Amino acid sequence: MKIGKEGRWALLFITPWIIGFAVFMAYPVVVSFFYSFCDYSVLSKPVWIGLGNYRDLLDDDVFWISLRNTAVFAVFSLPLGILFSLALAALLHLCVIGKATFRAIFFLPSLLPIVANAIIWLWIFNGEYGLFNYFLKGVFAIQPVNWLGAPNPAMAALIILGLWGVGYSIVIFLAAFQEVPTELYEAAELDGASHFGKFRHVTIPLISPVLYFQLVMGIIGVLQVFATPYIMTGGGPARSTLFYTMYLYDNAFRFLRMGYACALAWILFIIIVTLTWAATRLSSRYVHYQGG
Amino acid sequence: MAKRFKNAVGRGAEAKARGVFRFAALACVAGAGWATCALASPVEVTYWEKWTRFEGEAMKAVVDDFNRSQDKIFVRYVTMSNIVQKTLIATAGGDPPDLAGLEDANMVSFADKNALTELDGYLKDAGISPKIFIPVLLSRCTYRGKVWAVPTTPATTALHWNKTMFRRAGLDPESPPRTIAELDQMAEKLVIRDKSGKILQMGFLPPEPGWWNWAWPCFFGGRLWDGKDKITCDEPACIEAYKWVQSYARRYGAGPVQIFQSGFGNFASPQNAFLAGRVAMVIQGVWMYNFIKEYSPEMQWGAAPFPVKYSKQYGISHAEADVLAIPRGARHPKEAFEFMKYVIAQGPMEKLCIGQRKFSPLMKVSKAFYAMNPHPALRLFADVARNPLTFGFPQLTFWEEFLDEMNFAFQKIWMLEVTPEQAMADVKRKMQKRLDRELRRLRRLGLEQ
What is the chain B residue with the closest CA to A60? Predict the structure, then answer.
């Protein structure tokens, strides 16, 4: 293939990006694969140990704990997050007074820095003075729960907290709703479809590409959850909120077991790729693209 | 005309010659100036340090004194957050600072991976004996028989008690507990509950502040590692220590105590359990005075050695230290050591420790030191540091992993999910395997102790 004059200019302009990608993305990815077969501490030269790190992983109960915690978090957080943002977007799509203001309000939490958000929620979930307990006691007469101090409530607290940052998803769903042709709703109405019927049989199929996008991004996001639990619980109590990436970080930067951390990273990569592939396979059956 | 031309040429040549001469002269002056500058300009030593606020200012004052005291070396003091990771990455990348202010907890893993410059030769050449340091603090900087850093500001821990709360509970505010049994009795008297049984105040809580969960066995005469090839966290003294920890969760109820604990704020805040007057006795380090002064200045408090199981051990403590090290690959190690030498001299060291309200890591202390240092209980912290039974964390290359396992076990014990025997057996099983692997590695490298 011959590159014309314009092509050469284009290459020249994207060269900085290519160099950046090669140096800061491609190279680390490739060497991390090599290091995952090495005993490597960053400070000393890597020593080839073959499958040693992967064998150790199978025997490492903290690895299994972190994997299980991440799976539990993903199983609850991902569908809840999608349903919650879809429901809110549907409400915000209705023609009500102050629609724009409500949309802005629901988007606002997404603008908060993660650390500030985590610190605020630390106090909201406080077992003794937390607002969440006041709310539960006032509305449902539930006795105070030590949210972040006991294993199961801590996980639940983090899942609930995940719903707080659905602002971006809401915006994407709202955009998708606006793309649905109104004549389809009119046709459905003529056929006697209810509100729910229209949502189920018109809206959902037509926004299915967006749902699929949210699902894939969600899978990638929930499996890499790190900052919020790292700040709020530090993995505790008793490793009940120790997520995969936190254990990976500990191995890399606290225990200086970079080779082991690379092996952990590659396993996570394989898990994410597999799940994304599975989601793509499913999508061919359920996702409808307009015009083809 | 010809003459005029000749003269003109001559004048031109003369002017040209003068120009060349001037240029040469200027070049010489500039060259000489550059050479003089190069010879006279001080070597810049980069020094990364973790401290900020008054602690940072105290070290900055010492750095400024050093820079003023001579003109050959200029130390550039850079405050660095997350200093351990950054020093690690910079050292691995071959561009470390000349000096790094680390903590003793980082020493073993850094030294083991040859990431620090060995200091024995430098100390010997400077005629400095490592024995100038308090032994337990020197041991924090020594690994495989070599010195890898020097202690700067040290810390030991002690029991801090709230005298007002003691008085209200009918206890003698000047008599802190000396044994674990006394501690338990006094703690019981200090508990206050409301009508519904909710805990409002406690005398003592083993998980507060939770920084030395691994160290409780040491106050019962136990230890986690035999110093050689055995993890000993399952020995009877260790089990006894964690049974004592669990006794608090059983006595006051694991759930109610955890809810009570969740009301505590950050350590450095007025909501701190001790500073807010919610827990009357706490194990804390020499730095606690600074926080009492800032967040609870009216508090009447005292500090004493932490109670022990057997009274003959009374006076022991846990010791740790901030250290100054020269990372491997530093550009100016000689000049960096010159600054290090300056800091560990008695005068500058005392200035630094007074500024940070800590005791001196040096054996020799001037008469004025304690009088000038505003910390009212400083002698106690210095005395417990000199106790031969005072201990630091086990110097194992995988200590961070061990610490995680101990904290995990502690939390399970505290939540009444396991017995201390089970928890310690689990830690022993995992860590013995880890130690065996480490010993095999050292043997392979010919570094076995």
Answer: B430
Cβ distance of B259 and A149 shorter than 8 Å: yes
Average pLDDT on A49-60 reads 92
Which helix (DSSP H) or strand (DSSP E) does residue B69 occupy?
A: helix B53-69
- Looking at the DSSP bridge assignments, the partners of residue A121 are none
How far does A126 lie from chain B, in Å, by closest CA? 6
- Closest in A42, A126, A236 to B263, CB measured: A126
| Contact call for residues A203 and A180 (beta carbons, < 8 A) | yes
Q: What is the pLDDT of residue B8?
A: 46
Q: How many CB atoms lie within 10 A of CB B81?
A: 8
Confidence of residue B4 (pLDDT cuts 50, 70, 90): very low
Cα separation of A213 and A209, whole Å? 6
Interface check for A128 against chain B (CB to CB < 8 A): the answer is yes
Give the separation between CA A174 and CA A166, rounded to whole angstroms: 12
Cis peptide before B209 (omega within 30 of 0): yes
Q: Which of residues 254-273 of A touch B (CB under 8 A)?
A: 254-256
Question: Chain B within 8 Å of A250 (Cβ-Cβ)?
Answer: yes
- Residues B363 and B425 placed together within one structural domain of the fold: no
> How far apart, in whole angstroms, are the C-alpha atoms of residue B88 and residue B96?
8
Q: For residue B33, what pLDDT is reported?
A: 52
Q: Give the end of a domain, one of B370, B386, B402.
A: B386
Shared domain check, B252 and B331: no
Interface touch A238/B411, C-beta < 8 Å: yes
Query: How many domains would you assign to chain B?
Result: 2
Strands B142-143 and B146-147: antiparallel
Q: Which structural domain, as residue segments, surrounds residue B65? A: 44-148+319-386
Separation of alpha carbons B118 and B49, rounded Å: 20
**Alpha-carbon A169 to chain mean position:** 11
CB distance from A126 to chain B under 8 Å? yes
SS3 state at A79: helix
First to last CA, chain A: 31
Tokens matching residue B364? 């020799």
B398-427 pLDDT, tens digit each? 999 999 999 999 999 999 999 999 999 999
CB B47, CB B101: distance < 8 Å: yes
CATH class of A55-286: mainly alpha
Q: Count CB-CB contacts under 10 A for residue B36.
A: 10
pLDDT, mean of residues A201-213: 89
Which candidate in A43, A45, A119, A145 is best for mutational testing of the B interface (most B CBs within 10 A)? A43
Instruction: State the ipTM, two decimals.
Output: 0.83
Dihedral sign computed on CA atoms, order A63, A65, A66, A68: positive
* B→A interface, C-beta within 8 Å: 85, 88-89, 91-92, 109-110, 113-115, 255, 258-263, 398, 400-401, 404, 407-408, 411-412, 415, 417
B315 three-class SS: coil
pTM: 0.85
The reply to whether B360 and B214 lie within a common domain is: no
The span from the CA of A157 to the CA of B196, in Å, is 27
CB contacts under 8 A, A 163-222 vs B, are: none
* pLDDT tens track for B191-250: 999 888 889 999 999 999 999 999 999 999 999 999 899 999 999 999 999 999 999 999
Confidence tier at B389 by pLDDT (50, 70, 90): very high
Q: Where are the domains of chain A?
A: 55-286
> pLDDT exceeding 90 applies to what percent of chain B?
74
Alpha-helical regions (H) of chain A: 5-21, 27-35, 52-58, 61-93, 99-111, 114-124, 131-140, 151-164, 167-179, 182-190, 195-198, 204-206, 208-223, 227-232, 244-249, 258-286
CB contact under 8 A, A43 and B115: yes
